[in-house]
Design brief:
The chain has about 400 residues and is of the alpha/beta class. It is built from eleven helices and 14 strands.
Length: about 400
Amino acid sequence: MRRRNVTSSSISVDVPSGSIAEGRKPRHREVFDTLLGEIASGRFQPGDRLPTEAELAKTFSASRSTVARAMRELKGKGLLSRQRGGGTHIARPQESSKIALFTPFAHSAAGLGFIGGQIHAHLSELASRRTDHLRLQLVNRAAEGADPLEPMLAAARELIEKGVGGVFYYPVELPQAIVHYNQVVVDKLLSAGIAVLAVDRDIVSFPQRSKLPLVSYDNRRGGYLVSEHLIDQGCRRIAFIGSPYVSSAASDRLRGYCDALEDHGLAVERSLIRTANLEELDGNFCRQLMSESKPDAILCKMDHYAALVGRHLMGMGIAIGRDVKLAGFDDEPFAGMLPVPLTTIRFPADPFTQVCYERLLAQMENPAHPSPGQTLIDIELVVRESSGASNSK
């Protein structure tokens, strides 16, 4: 359809008499409702250019701020598109997209964890605004000791069968020997013409980089900031407890920790860097850590780790925040409600998911040619009593 301009004289305005006290609508709502009626009636067609705010202000005998507010509300409903220097146009109908958040580490929504759950919630909200169809793709639980590759591939086949056009791929953390499973699954999706965006972490381990577009948090800066904070609190022997599985996010946190120590003239001692699964963080682990490494601070890869470690240390008579500083990552809701509130790194979900959505939509326009490159989303240091100080909100 040929784009046409709509003059202000072509807009019919019926302004009711009376005052606001008599039940008259707010002025911007009158403008909003009139323009909405013109769009709904078909008088304005997709692509039509509207009069300027100044012209509409004259037509409605209203201030420009009133007209601007009505226009913002119409744009918020997806009815207008505004381009700098190009004027305001009636928006063309959006085509709904079939997309999915694929989490090969989760067997149920509860298994997403706090950060994964936040990402899913915000992506769902964005999909709803665009009328896209967002699918949460989980995996069937494999038998104990069984190879996890087949359930991962089965989930990928399901996405292909459902006609999904784009996938937010949230990689599973795996032992080094099978970390390539993420690549196998992604290759299957790509071969089916599905656009794939890596979310939060890459599908390969550092220092490698996959060819996928990646949106992740600045985990390295997070590791640096929280480690530097502990150093500023007088700590000189900071232990780091990580995971035995491969994760670019976890390795970046460790790299930030090492950078901070080195920049402040402290040695990176291998005895202070430990790896463990969540279930291994028991009293024996903590007693061994304290007796062998003698840390004055402990930085854990996630808040759940820190909460368990803190509980065992308190059972040993160690005062968190005084005898040993403690910190984590994620700023889970419980972090501020522990007996000693936890210093942590917060990962804002809203800007993260906005960028994820934009990059996946761009990738879906040409899925056969991934646009590599990493986008880093900034993090926040939240200081609480577990590190001997507090500036949390």
